[in-house]
Amino acid sequence: MATSKKRAKRISKSHKKVGLPPGTMTYVGNKESSELIIEVYNYTPEGVTHKDCTTVEDAVAFLATDAVTWVNLNGLFHVKAIEELGKSVGMHPLQLEDVVNVNHRPKIEELTKGGLFVILKMLYYNEANELIIEHISLVFKDNTVISFQEDDKDVFDIIRQRIKEPRGVIRNKQADYLLFAIMDAVIDHYFLILETLGDKIEVLEDQLIYNPTDNLVGEIQQLKREVLKIRRSIYPLREVVGNLEKAEHPSISDDTQKYFRDLYDHTIQVIETIETYRDMLWGLMDMYMSSVSNKMNNVMKVLTIIATIFIPLTFIVGVYGMNFENMPELHYQNGYYIVWIVMLVIFLAMLYYFKRKKWL
Amino acid sequence: MATSKKRAKRISKSHKKVGLPPGTMTYVGNKESSELIIEVYNYTPEGVTHKDCTTVEDAVAFLATDAVTWVNLNGLFHVKAIEELGKSVGMHPLQLEDVVNVNHRPKIEELTKGGLFVILKMLYYNEANELIIEHISLVFKDNTVISFQEDDKDVFDIIRQRIKEPRGVIRNKQADYLLFAIMDAVIDHYFLILETLGDKIEVLEDQLIYNPTDNLVGEIQQLKREVLKIRRSIYPLREVVGNLEKAEHPSISDDTQKYFRDLYDHTIQVIETIETYRDMLWGLMDMYMSSVSNKMNNVMKVLTIIATIFIPLTFIVGVYGMNFENMPELHYQNGYYIVWIVMLVIFLAMLYYFKRKKWL
Amino acid sequence: MATSKKRAKRISKSHKKVGLPPGTMTYVGNKESSELIIEVYNYTPEGVTHKDCTTVEDAVAFLATDAVTWVNLNGLFHVKAIEELGKSVGMHPLQLEDVVNVNHRPKIEELTKGGLFVILKMLYYNEANELIIEHISLVFKDNTVISFQEDDKDVFDIIRQRIKEPRGVIRNKQADYLLFAIMDAVIDHYFLILETLGDKIEVLEDQLIYNPTDNLVGEIQQLKREVLKIRRSIYPLREVVGNLEKAEHPSISDDTQKYFRDLYDHTIQVIETIETYRDMLWGLMDMYMSSVSNKMNNVMKVLTIIATIFIPLTFIVGVYGMNFENMPELHYQNGYYIVWIVMLVIFLAMLYYFKRKKWL
Amino acid sequence: MATSKKRAKRISKSHKKVGLPPGTMTYVGNKESSELIIEVYNYTPEGVTHKDCTTVEDAVAFLATDAVTWVNLNGLFHVKAIEELGKSVGMHPLQLEDVVNVNHRPKIEELTKGGLFVILKMLYYNEANELIIEHISLVFKDNTVISFQEDDKDVFDIIRQRIKEPRGVIRNKQADYLLFAIMDAVIDHYFLILETLGDKIEVLEDQLIYNPTDNLVGEIQQLKREVLKIRRSIYPLREVVGNLEKAEHPSISDDTQKYFRDLYDHTIQVIETIETYRDMLWGLMDMYMSSVSNKMNNVMKVLTIIATIFIPLTFIVGVYGMNFENMPELHYQNGYYIVWIVMLVIFLAMLYYFKRKKWL
Amino acid sequence: MATSKKRAKRISKSHKKVGLPPGTMTYVGNKESSELIIEVYNYTPEGVTHKDCTTVEDAVAFLATDAVTWVNLNGLFHVKAIEELGKSVGMHPLQLEDVVNVNHRPKIEELTKGGLFVILKMLYYNEANELIIEHISLVFKDNTVISFQEDDKDVFDIIRQRIKEPRGVIRNKQADYLLFAIMDAVIDHYFLILETLGDKIEVLEDQLIYNPTDNLVGEIQQLKREVLKIRRSIYPLREVVGNLEKAEHPSISDDTQKYFRDLYDHTIQVIETIETYRDMLWGLMDMYMSSVSNKMNNVMKVLTIIATIFIPLTFIVGVYGMNFENMPELHYQNGYYIVWIVMLVIFLAMLYYFKRKKWL
């Protein structure tokens, strides 16, 4: 339930935006408390400088160097800082608007004066095991990559580590490879999400077989919704990564393009897996429905067996409970025993009948 | 029900049109009482003139000026005025026919002598919470945008405000930006519709889980129909906005084209959301069906438990209600108590059986 | 049922054709009694000549004039006349075959020596309210349009009227506009069909909600089949009209092409409506199934309530109907009344239980 | 059942082929007993020679003549003869392999040295009313058409007749027309198949309405499978015939291409019909399921009415069957009659209740 | 169950990989125990050399010869050896990564310095009758084909045999034909898989008709999942083989391309068959659901018949079990017999009613 409540809240916020002129930057997410931290990595094959700036000016200062620079801004609530930083690399107001519009779908665009603007969705499960979809924007220009993210939780630790390693591949490559590395980190993390999802589906399936309960349908539905959400976040990636793989962007070297081709393969694989999960969830729903039908069938069988056996017998004993004056059988010495025998025969005949019908 | 009644009425009207020669302007909507008001905004970066004209001549007079002019005509019932106004900017009779044919789907066309003709659908919920689909036509030519709408209720107040603000972006741009601004206002409003729809779906889902009633299926069906209607109104927009984004219309500047690209992103997002809602509604129907099955299952279980326990017991008491002369048990001192004990044992055995079957 | 019988008959006839060499004209429809009438309209802006010819020669005589000529042949059974007439404008034997093959799908083809050959389906409901699909072929060459139709019932009266009006648009245009006018009359009529269909769906929906009966499923099925048939007749039109709108046929003027563009919009709208109806019919089937389930649920509830209340009570009275000698309760002064009180308590407890379960 | 057994057998055979080098000709069908007959028709507008050869040499001798030659080989079991004949017109080993691989899907290919190679499926119902799918390969080169078929049953008798008629169109055309004529004969026969199928669906539908039995679902399933099989055989034809219609094969004259265009129309019509049948069969399954639900509903109603009426009455008579000493009613003069009246009132009240609920 | 357990394990492993820099070779499969064996075949039309090398150096030595060389490496666990071997033919690190990433989907890529890199899936059922999907990579460069496979079980024995045969086609062709032969062996084996699957579906169908049990739904579900997995492995092949058939790879001769065209036909056929199986499995689920409903119907009928017959009779005998003082019927001489006759009449009337309703 928690997830759907959350979604409701997010959507409600999004209409803050309706009615504003285009190009107005409005953060429509709900992570407002985060403080402004601009993480900067400035590296050459020879060395790395790492600094956590708190003002945009500090960060922008690094852009002028010859080294590759990664500027990572946390907290889309800091609209002013984002605008300042974005304008320093020549972003269009409409693009700046998209950076903070967390409902925007993944896309790729060229900057007006050269360079690329990419929107992605970062997926992870939080501590409460809810699926979090975070909005990430990347700007790549010359020897700089700027990343804007909603929260200070991310999947980029591996990149930070690799940048710090003197012999890391990343240190010897240009900023286009850094762009790839960040996108790769995001998309690689999808596999973890898919794995968790796959495990959930399997657990559900086992429960359906060994212990089907009424609320399973709610859980299937919940998973379906999760798959739907993931699908919406991932589907447009096909186009985004496909564009990087196929189009000739002058700022992306042939060598790096090979890496994007590899990333494209991963994207397709993620999409195919999510489709398979979708099919499997539909299958689960079918299994659930048939298990419900089977249970009902079994309930009915028990009722039918008991009723079919005892209703006729109750009739018989009713007959000899009548108070007619003239009922010869009542006076027979063995009348009572004969009735018992008759009833036993009926009882056994019924059992045999049900046995043959495979109801027992 | 109200909505479907309405639809019936509208369709019935549409056949007024069958049999007329093409190019005949016939208003097939049902908002006939509205008075003719032609709202004119004539603005330059320096100043704005606003006038509510009541004759076409007054409005046309503004077109000759160098300033950007927005002419907004309310009431498609005023066929004559529309024809006059349309011809003044060189519209084709077939296009004039489409302006008043409220069933026409969204489209974009070029005017014969330069300029663009766009049909959109404006969606809003009225006071009775019914979804209203209003037919809007836009004509863009030189420094003029003409909008034709069915009713005087619209979503353009934000544009009126922005035009009046001396420093507004809109004041410093040409008519192509005005065209964008109007389309943007319409499409931005879709997000509000989607939000309302999303809330309705959530409420339904909660009801399905906590308080499923028989008439929920009617409400799901109603929502499905609403989604179907919205979808039909929005789908063709992909093509319309896509055309403005991609094609090279000489009258649309490169700068404005960027805004249309942004609008295209929004359109795609609206379409994707509506598709997701569709999937969710199908899921709800599944949930409903399985909830109905589960309820039936529970009803059956109660019946089966009661019947299975008491039918055999009733048989036993029936046996000792027989009137045979020779029934030794009847004369036992503790016969009655023994029967009670036997019945108690059967009763407990049954309870245990149902417990093990997890029916209790 | 009538419709499906009819279809059976038509299909049965179609195999008369199997085994004949291609280009053999065989009328496979079932309207054989109609007499040969060749209606000819020959008009210029100045005047009209109208004649109902009974021989092909009479009709062909008009073709040589400079005026626009519309030749309308009723009765596809008159294979010889069709052949003669067709050959006079240079039709290929295969095209002549298609004129009388009423099962042929809509298409557009060029004539060998210039001109166009179009196949359409005319839909109408007959007096028995059955959907009739009539096969219509149009040949357009120079200043002539020839139409071949199965029956003398048609939707062309408005064209006849307009030709007779001296100031009608049609009188001032060439034969390409006449071709458009005929196709427009056919396609405009589809809207009436869709309206009737929409009304039927609504009536069904109301019945499903207020008075669901067993045979509604048959009616839903019947409508589905009707939608399927209409869809098959209309779908290929997208291509046919699209071709006229897009391709550059030298014999179609730019001005008329605009009208075909308008017709194309209508065609798309018809197709979209039919698709919506299809979705709605599927929804109805779902509603029906859930209404059946709900009814069953209610039946089961009544049974369960009655049985659950009275079966235990019947057991109790059974107990005191036993004939044991030693049953102390039977001799209590108020035994009988105590039993009644006990039973009343059980009865009320049951009622409370069902109330809480919301079964009452 | 028979059909599915057969299919099992055929598939089992197909794995004879797995593991053989490509280009190895292995007949995987199950019609092994047929004798080698090579039917040859050699004709010009002036005259026809017809001979049933038993050796390939005899047949090949005709190929050198200037006349059009049709060589028809029955029995794909005669791998050697097929190889010899195929090589005489320059077929590739892989194409020869496809001639005898009866599981191969329809396709069209060019021969290495000019000419065309076409694979089709011939469908017919055999005497046991089973759907037979026969594999047919056609080779067209210069003035020769060679056809390879599995069995001596075929649909080519009409072609044989037409060749023998001195004034037949076929006699005056080249071999490309013969290729068309053979393909036309095969595809025309599909209409007969569709007709039979349509009749079967109608019969099923009538049975579903008037006399639904349990095994209807098996028959629907059987028809679905048949439709699936036909679909698989016919779908690739779209591409095959489309290629002949559109591509410019130098050996096919413009005139004949018109005939292929006609054939293409027929192919599309066959495919559309099969799709309609598929939709109808799904609809039948829905009807069946709802008819089952309705029947269950009726069964439940009968049970509920009887039980609801008599269970309370039985309780009442049980009350007065109790043996309490002090039961005043028992001693009333009219106690018995009063009870009867009470029961009658209850009975009538129940009837009224059920009437109002429309269960009676 | 076993299969799904397995899958869970494999997926779990795959996240070993998340977080590693791209180009890092990590074997994510679970066949780690296999020893390194590099099988080398070096052949010309004149002779064959076969050697099982244990070091990469031994194998690489053969590559320099003019003869065609097939290097087959078993065991993807040997990452070092694979890297060494791969680099000797100029593979990119990303391609080497894909060789050991057993979850990678089938694809085709060019090597940086000429040559092709192909990923396939080899399918077989193991002894436990589980479907095994093995990851196979092929590298083709100049006169060499290198194949990397997970396990020492494979489907290549026929190729080994054919290489050893002095007159085999393969001996007289170049390495491009060897590439084809290996892919052909893999794809040909799919037909065996499909056959087994087809047999399983048929067995299930027979069981559904003759002996439907509750756990059939689990088996249908299992098969659906298997079809889903196969589909995912085979679908991308369309593109892979299609590329080889259509694109002009300079290293693939025209002659061999014909073989790839043939392989493409087979691939399409495999895909079509798997789609048919999918449709059939959905049909089975429908059959299962309707069989469950029918069984429930029959259970209900038995209950209803018994209850409907005996409940009224029990009421009657209850009436005459009452203890009213004044009940005249009790004193009739033949009262008892008359009651029996009345009950018999009711009994027979009921039977007749059920007979007419076709419940008996």
From TrEMBL, chains A, B, C, D, E:
GO MF annotations in UniProt = cobalt ion binding; cobalt ion transmembrane transporter activity; magnesium ion binding; magnesium ion transmembrane transporter activity
User: May I have one GO cellular component term?
Assistant: plasma membrane
Q: Where in the cell is it found?
A: Cell membrane; Membrane
| Alphabetized UniProt keyword annotations | Cell membrane, Ion transport, Magnesium, Membrane, Transmembrane, Transmembrane helix, Transport
Q: CDD domains annotated for this entry?
A: TmCorA-like_1
Transmembrane region(s):
302-322, 334-354
Q: How does it sit in the membrane?
A: Multi-pass membrane protein
Describe its function: Mediates influx of magnesium ions.
Family of this protein? Belongs to the CorA metal ion transporter (MIT) (TC 1.A.35) family.
Q: Which PANTHER family match?
A: CORA FAMILY METAL ION TRANSPORTER (EUROFUNG)
Q: What is this protein called?
A: Magnesium transport protein CorA
Q: Which organism is it from?
A: Imtechella halotolerans K1
Gene name of this polypeptide: corA
